[in-house]
C-alpha cells in the first residue's frame, strides 16, 4: 500500500494539526480563546467553511470547546493525560473471597441490563452500528441465496465472504485469496481452532499479562498450560523477553494481541512485530495473532499485523466482525498459514459449518463498500470517546490514578491506589448501577487487584459523566 | 402423553391397514387387482372419498399402484424386503490404498455438486423444507428483534427459543423448562460440548459400531479413545454387552444414537433404553444421547428417548434442526441434566454465543406451530421414499444384497458381497455421476468394506432409479 504524504490530507486537517501542536506545546493553554473562525480563515487563506471544519475536528477530539456567543476555547491538553499504569511485576496479594472464575461469571452475566451504565463490556453499542444497512444486506441475502440460506454452508466458509475477508488484509499489506481464509463463529472459535491445530493437551502456550480472560480460560479448558508475559502499556510484549523464556520453557505456541491488546490497549511497533515473527519463525513456534481490534485505530494508518511479516506461514491470523460491525452475526475468520488444511478439518469436525445467511449478508455488505464507510465513522467516534473518558477520569478520580493511552480499541486500563480491591469496588459500584471490569479477571492468578478495565464504547453523555463521578468518589472513599 | 387408541385413527387409515395386512399375509399377492374404489366404499360402508384416501395412502407407501383406466394393483409386499445386514463381528480385512480420513474428505467434499445423484449425504433436500415460511419467520425476527439481531445472544441461547425447544421434549414425555436447555451451533457442537463437559483427554468413550464418522473423529480430536460396541440392525446396541465391557474397560462416557442410528437405522426398544439408562446411572457414567433423527419416525408414535427414563440427570440429550428443518441455520441444543452449568461455561468459552437472528427466527417458527405441520409432511415423504428405495435395491442389486429396515431417519445400510470393496465402488460410481458413502468411513478401523450407506433423502424420480440401476450393474460387475 502506498504511504500517504502529508499533502494528501484535506486542508482543514492540516490546519487542525497545526493548532493541536500549539495546544500540545502549551503555546495555547487550557482556557485560552482561539482566533475566531473569520480570523482563522484570513490567517491561513482558507474558506470560512474549512476553518469551521478544523475547529469542529478539534472539538471532536475533546481539545477545544465552543462557548455560546463567545467562540472556541482550549479545553484540554493531551500532554496532561494521567500517568501510565505499570507492567505486571509479580503476582500481587489478592484479598478476595471469590475465585477469578466466579468473578468473571458475576461481572459478565449482567451485561444486558439496560438500567446500568456498563463500562465492563468491550463491544460497540448498537447505536454506533449500521443496523439499517445490515438489514438490507440480510434481506438481499435472503433473496439472492439459491436455497434461502437453508443449505449447509461450506465448512471453510462462504466463498464470496472469504474473498471479501481476504481483501480486508490489503489494509495491512497482506495479499491473500479466498482459499487462504477460514470463516469461524467469531474470534473465540478462531482461537480455539488455532490452538487445537497447533498444540496437544499438556503443552505450554505463551500469553500476555494482563490479557482477556477468555484466552486463559480456553487454554485451561483445552488442557494447556499458560505462561504469562508482561505487557508494556505502550509497546506490548517484548520479543527479547519471549526469547529468554524460550530457553527455559517448552513453549509450543503463542497467543498475542499485538495491536490494541486487551485490556492494556498497547500496540507493538512495526519493528517489534517483525522481530517477534522472525523469532517464532526461527524456533518454528506458531504465533496465533488475535487482531480483533486492529481496524479500530485512531492514528492515520492501520497498524501493520505480525502476519504481514510472516514469510513462512507460522502466523495464524485471527479476527472478527464482532467488535466492529455485528456481534450477533458471529463472523470471525482465520488466515492460518501452514495450518490451513488442519484448521479446515477441525472446523468441519467441531461445528460442521457456519450460519449460511449471515455469511451471505456480510459478504454483500463488504462487497458494496459499506464496511469501510462505517469504520471511518466508528474510528472517529471511538477516538473522541477515548479522549473524553480520559478527561473524565482525570477530573473525577484521585490524582495518583494511572491510565493507559490506547491508540485504538475500546478500553482504558486504570491503575488505582495499591490498597484498593477492584472487585470490591465493582460490587460497590453495582449498587449505584455502574458496572466496571475488575483487574483481577485479566490474569489467571488474579493479579491486578488494584486495576480496572473501563470501556469507552458508550458515547459520552451526562449519565456517563455521573457514573465516572460516582466511581471517583467510591475510589476516594475506599482508598482512605 | 396419552397413548392413542386404534379408534382414534381416521377411517381411511383403518381401511388401509386392513388392506396392508392382507398384502402382508399374501391374501393379496403382487400383481393382484384391488377392488374398485366404488366396491371398496360399498364393502366398508365408507364414502368414495374415504376409499380413495385409503388407496392413496397405500400408494404413497409403495404397496399398490394405479394403472390408467384399469384400477389399483398390488405392487409390493413388505415381507419381500431384502435380508438384514449383519452386526459387526470383527474388523474385516480392508484392501484399500487410502486412509479412512482421506476417504471421508474425498466422499464429502463433493456434496454440493448439482450434476450428481447424491446418495452420500444424510440431510433433507431443500425441496422438502418450508423455505418460504422460514423466510417469513426470519423477516419477522429482523423486525421484532430489539437490536436487529446485532447484539450478542445469551451464551445459553435465546430464551424464547429455549422455551420452544423445551416444549419439543413433550413429544417424548420429557418435561423441561427454558433453563434446562442450552442452544448450540448444530448437533456436532452439542456433542463436542458434552464430551468436553464429561471427559478428560485420555479417557475412553463407548460408541456404536458402525457409527457416524463425525463422532469417532471428534473423539479422536479431543484426545479421547473410542471403544466400539456392535449395533443390531433392528434394536441397536445391547445394554448387557455394555455392562460386560464396563467390567473390562474404564469407560468414562457413552455417545449413542439410540433412535434411528446412523448408518444402521436401528431403534432401541423402550425397555432396552430404560435398561441402558439404569445401567449408566448405577455406574454414574454420562450417556450422551444423540437424538438428531428422533422426529423423523415412520411409525405412529415418536419413539421415547433415553432421556425420558433419566431420573438422576446422567443423560445429556443432544439434538438439532439441521436434519429436519434448516441445516444452514445451525441450531442444535442440549438438555445436559446435571452437567448444565458446565456446558453453559464451555459454550461461553468456546464460541461466546450463537447467531442471534436465526435463533430468533426459529423461536418464532416453532411458536406458531409450523414445525409440527412441516414434520408431518416430511415424515410421510421420507417413509414413502424409504420404501421406494428398498424396492429399487431389490430390483437392481444382486439377490444376496442385505438392506437395513429403518423405522425413521434418512439412510439405508446396504451389505454386499464379501469380496466387494465399497470405496472402489464409490470411485467407479463417481464416474457415472453417482455418489454413495462407502461403509469403511463408518468405523475408525475401516471395517464394513463391503457395505454402503445410501441416503433416500432425495424424492424418488427417474434419475434416482437410473442411478440405482447403474449401482446395481457396477456391483454385479465388481463382484465377479
Automatic annotation (TrEMBL), chains A, B:
User: Belongs to which family?
Assistant: In the C-terminal section; belongs to the class-I pyridoxal-phosphate-dependent aminotransferase family.
The record's section on InterPro entries has: Aminotransferase_I/II_large, HTH_trans_reg/aminotransferase, PyrdxlP-dep_Trfase, PyrdxlP-dep_Trfase_major, PyrdxlP-dep_Trfase_small, Tscrpt_reg_HTH_GntR, WH-like_DNA-bd_sf, WH_DNA-bd_sf
* Annotated protein name in UniProt: HTH gntR-type domain-containing protein
Q: Transmembrane as a keyword?
A: no
Q: Which Gene3D superfamilies match?
A: Aspartate Aminotransferase, domain 1, Type I PLP-dependent aspartate aminotransferase-like (Major domain), Winged helix-like DNA-binding domain superfamily/Winged helix DNA-binding domain
Give the superkingdom in one word.
Answer: Bacteria
User: Which GO MF terms are attached to this record?
Assistant: DNA binding; DNA-binding transcription factor activity; pyridoxal phosphate binding; transaminase activity
This protein's species is Puia dinghuensis
UniProt keyword Lyase, yes or no: no
Keywords on record: Aminotransferase, DNA-binding, Pyridoxal phosphate, Transcription, Transcription regulation, Transferase
Pfam families documented for this protein = Aminotran_1_2 (PF00155), GntR (PF00392)
Amino acid at each position: 500500500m502506498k504511504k500517504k504524504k502529508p499533502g494528501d490530507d484535506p486542508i482543514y486537517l492540516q490546519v487542525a494539526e497545526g493548532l493541536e501542536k500549539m495546544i500540545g506545546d502549551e503555546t495555547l493553554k487550557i482556557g485560552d480563546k482561539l482566533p475566531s473562525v473569520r480570523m482563522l480563515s484570513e490567517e491561513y487563506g482558507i474558506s470560512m467553511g474549512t476553518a469551521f471544519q478544523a475547529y469542529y475536528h478539534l472539538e471532536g477530539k475533546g481539545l477545544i470547546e465552543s462557548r455560546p456567543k463567545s467562540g472556541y476555547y482550549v479545553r484540554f491538553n493531551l500532554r496532561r493525560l494521567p500517568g501510565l499504569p505499570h507492567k505486571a511485576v509479580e503476582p500481587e496479594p489478592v484479598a478476595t473471597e471469590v475465585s477469578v472464575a466466579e468473578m468473571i461469571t458475576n461481572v459478565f452475566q449482567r451485561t444486558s441490563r439496560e438500567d446500568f451504565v456498563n463500562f465492563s463490556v468491550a463491544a460497540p453499542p448498537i447505536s454506533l452500528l449500521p443496523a439499517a444497512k445490515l438489514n438490507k444486506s440480510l434481506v438481499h441475502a435472503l433473496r439472492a441465496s439459491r436455497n434461502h440460506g437453508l443449505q449447509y454452508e461450506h465448512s471453510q466458509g462462504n466463498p464470496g465472504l472469504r474473498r471479501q475477508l481476504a481483501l480486508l488484509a490489503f489494509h495491512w499489506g497482506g495479499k491473500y485469496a479466498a482459499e487462504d481464509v477460514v470463516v469461524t463463529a467469531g474470534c473465540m472459535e478462531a482461537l480455539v481452532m488455532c490452538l487445537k491445530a497447533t498444540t496437544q493437551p499438556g503443552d505450554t502456550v505463551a500469553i500476555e499479562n494482563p490479557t482477556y480472560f477468555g484466552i486463559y480460560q480456553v487454554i485451561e479448558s483445552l488442557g494447556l498450560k499458560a505462561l504469562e508475559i508482561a505487557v508494556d502499556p505502550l509497546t506490548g510484549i517484548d520479543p527479547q523477553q519471549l526469547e529468554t523464556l524460550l530457553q527455559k520453557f517448552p513453549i509450543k505456541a503463542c497467543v498475542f494481541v499485538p495491536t490494541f491488546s486487551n485490556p492494556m490497549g498497547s500496540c507493538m511497533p512495526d519493528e517489534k512485530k517483525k522481530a517477534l515473527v522472525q523469532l517464532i519463525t526461527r524456533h518454528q513456534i506458531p504465533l496465533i495473532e488475535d487482531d480483533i481490534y486492529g481496524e479500530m485505530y485512531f492514528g492515520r494508518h492501520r497498524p501493520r499485523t505480525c502476519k504481514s511479516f510472516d514469510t513462512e506461514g507460522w502466523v495464524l491470523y485471527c479476527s472478527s466482525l464482532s467488535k466492529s460491525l455485528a456481534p450477533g452475526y458471529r463472523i470471525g475468520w482465520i488466515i492460518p498459514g501452514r495450518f490451513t488444511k488442519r484448521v479446515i478439518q477441525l472446523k468441519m469436525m467441531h461445528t460442521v459449518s457456519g450460519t449460511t445467511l449471515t455469511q451471505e449478508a456480510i459478504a454483500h455488505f463488504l462487497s458494496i463498500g459499506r464496511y469501510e464507510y462505517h469504520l471511518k465513522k466508528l474510528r472517529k467516534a471511538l477516538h473522541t470517546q477515548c479522549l473524553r473518558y480520559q478527561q473524565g477520569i482525570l477530573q473525577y478520580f484521585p490524582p495518583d490514578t494511572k491510565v493507559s493511552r490506547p491508540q485504538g480499541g475500546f478500553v482504558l486500563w486504570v491503575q488505582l491506589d495499591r490498597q484498593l480491591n477492584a472487585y470490591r469496588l465493582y460490587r460497590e459500584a453495582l449498587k449505584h448501577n455502574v458496572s466496571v471490569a475488575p483487574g483481577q479477571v485479566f490474569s489467571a492468578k488474579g493479579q491486578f487487584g488494584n486495576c480496572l478495565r473501563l470501556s469507552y464504547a458508550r458515547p459520552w453523555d451526562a449519565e456517563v459523566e455521573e457514573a465516572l463521578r460516582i466511581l471517583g468518589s467510591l475510589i476516594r472513599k475506599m482508598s482512605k
